[in-house]
Write a structure and sequence with these properties.
Number of strands: 0
Helix content: over 70%
Radius of gyration: 22 Å
Number of helices: 4
Order of helices and strands: HHHH
Length: about 170
């Protein structure tokens, strides 16, 4: 790719990687911040930490996730990378989104159940995030040969008529 097309891909890739770094850093930082909450902590400490976790999630980590996914989707179409390893990567990204949502759920529980909710240990979230991020990196950097699990009859025209006479025009 040269010229404007190459520049576009480069800029979108830069945006994707920058947003991904912020999103992944947030997936590490937020569980650690939530783990700082303690039962019986002073209201001022609770309010400060609760506001910090809420604002970080809502105004930094979530927008970064949206930008990373949007830029990644644009790259998928700009580069035409419709290969099995990419679909495996998309499954891993789906896991990152699920972890992101779980963290958001904990942030909401912390605000709604003032002082009565003790957040779970950050260890499962950190382990899950780490494993998923490593899987994404291995898939993107290694581009392994992943077997195509789609049957051949789904990928080629069968030259048959539809079983009904009524077809939309």
């Amino acid at each position: 790719m040269t010229g404007l097309a190459g520049l576009t891909v480069t800029l979108v890739k830069f945006l994707h990687i920058a947003a991904l770094v912020i999103w992944c850093a947030g997936l590490f930082a937020l569980p650690l911040m939530l783990g700082k909450h303690e039962a019986g902590e002073a209201q001022s400490d609770y309010a400060r930490l609760r506001l910090l976790t809420h604002d970080s999630y809502a105004f930094i980590v979530t927008p970064a996730a949206v930008i990373a996914i949007a830029a990644g989707t644009a790259l998928l179409y700009l580069r035409g990378v419709f290969v099995p390893w990419m679909f495996a990567k998309l499954v891993a990204v789906g896991l990152l989104v699920a972890l992101h949502c779980w963290i958001g759920h904990i942030v909401i529980l912390m605000s709604e159940r003032r002082g009565t909710y003790t957040p779970p240990s950050p260890v499962p979230l950190l382990v899950g995030s780490s494993a998923t991020m490593i899987a994404v990196l291995l898939l993107v950097l290694g581009k392994p040969v992943v077997p195509d699990l789609v049957p051949e009859w789904l990928t080629k025209p069968q030259n048959r008529q539809l079983p009904v006479d009524e077809t939309p025009i």
